[in-house]
UniProtKB/TrEMBL annotation:
<dbReference type="Pfam" id="PF02798">
    <property type="entry name" value="GST_N"/>
</dbReference>
<protein>
    <submittedName>
        <fullName>Glutathione S-transferase</fullName>
    </submittedName>
</protein>
<dbReference type="InterPro" id="IPR004045">
    <property type="entry name" value="Glutathione_S-Trfase_N"/>
</dbReference>
<dbReference type="Pfam" id="PF00043">
    <property type="entry name" value="GST_C"/>
</dbReference>
<dbReference type="InterPro" id="IPR004046">
    <property type="entry name" value="GST_C"/>
</dbReference>
<feature type="domain" description="GST C-terminal">
    <location>
        <begin position="108"/>
        <end position="233"/>
    </location>
</feature>
<dbReference type="InterPro" id="IPR036249">
    <property type="entry name" value="Thioredoxin-like_sf"/>
</dbReference>
<feature type="domain" description="GST N-terminal">
    <location>
        <begin position="18"/>
        <end position="105"/>
    </location>
</feature>
<dbReference type="GO" id="GO:0016740">
    <property type="term" value="F:transferase activity"/>
</dbReference>
<dbReference type="InterPro" id="IPR040079">
    <property type="entry name" value="Glutathione_S-Trfase"/>
</dbReference>
<keyword id="KW-0808">Transferase</keyword>
<dbReference type="InterPro" id="IPR010987">
    <property type="entry name" value="Glutathione-S-Trfase_C-like"/>
</dbReference>
<dbReference type="InterPro" id="IPR036282">
    <property type="entry name" value="Glutathione-S-Trfase_C_sf"/>
</dbReference>
<comment type="similarity">
    <text>Belongs to the GST superfamily.</text>
</comment>
């Protein structure tokens, strides 16, 4: 039977305690989703800092765990049937951890699927669109003279925020209770501050979103998770 220590990832990021879940990540929105879930559930885990540089994410060691070369990824030594489980893609990891712990994803079939639809809304909409806004507003794309890309992603970001504003009317959380829908979505809204783009998307014009985001950020587990693994080592 293979163990965590047999995995090629250990040639670069060796597990100090191979009996607990191993997190390979960086404190970006997608990475924070998983550290937040681990902190919220209280599962014991060991983190490994995998930067976004090609030297890390495109290394043979990391590609042996995630062939897509993106953080985050995990290895759980106590996966289904007690066997080690390798997993990448933040949404899949959140669903797995929710089902493993019985937390933040309702066992009721209808509520479960309604939660998952908001997870997919983040994965297919908020993440990609907010990320493109960041690129064209604050990073390399900002050097492009053509204003159409940044205008496109600004408008789409605002539209997605409006969807959240409507959903959160009269609600504390995206579902009736705090769930993986909140855990996967809120870190991407935090990125708007990192991009310096809050004023560009009229952040303060959506009181439901602002109040929800503040509730999320006030959670002790989230305060711990936002710098796991530390961005500065």
């Amino acid at each position: 039977m293979s163990t965590i220590t047999d995995h090629p990832i250990n040639t670069r990021w060796p597990a100090a305690n191979p009996d607990i879940l191993q997190l390979y990540s960086f404190a970006t929105p997608n990475g924070v989703k998983v550290s937040a879930m681990l902190e919220e559930t209280g599962l014991p885990y060991e983190w490994h800092r995998v930067t976004l540089s090609d030297a890390d994410v495109k290394s043979p060691a990391f590609l042996s765990l995630n062939p897509n070369g993106k953080i985050p990824a995990i290895i759980d030594p106590d996966g289904p049937g007690g066997q080690p489980l390798e997993l990448f893609e933040s949404g899949a990891i959140l669903v797995y951890l929710a089902e493993k712990t019985g937390k933040f994803l309702s066992p009721d079939p209808a509520r479960r699927y309604h939660t998952l639809q908001w997870v997919m809304f983040q994965m297919g909409g908020i993440g990609p669109m907010f990320g493109q806004l960041g690129y064209f507003f604050a990073f390399g794309g900002a050097e492009i003279d053509d204003h159409r890309p940044v205008d496109r992603y600004r408008k789409e970001t605002m539209r997605l925020l409006d969807v959240l504003e409507t959903r959160l009317a009269g609600r504390d959380w995206l579902m009736d209770d705090y769930s993986i829908a909140d855990i996967c979505t809120a870190p991407w809204l935090r990125a708007l501050d990192f991009y310096g783009a809050k004023s560009e998307v009229a952040w303060d014009s959506r009181p439901n979103v602002v109040a929800w985001f503040d509730r999320f950020m006030d959670r002790p587990a989230i305060q711990r998770a936002i710098d796991i693994p530390p961005r500065d080592a």
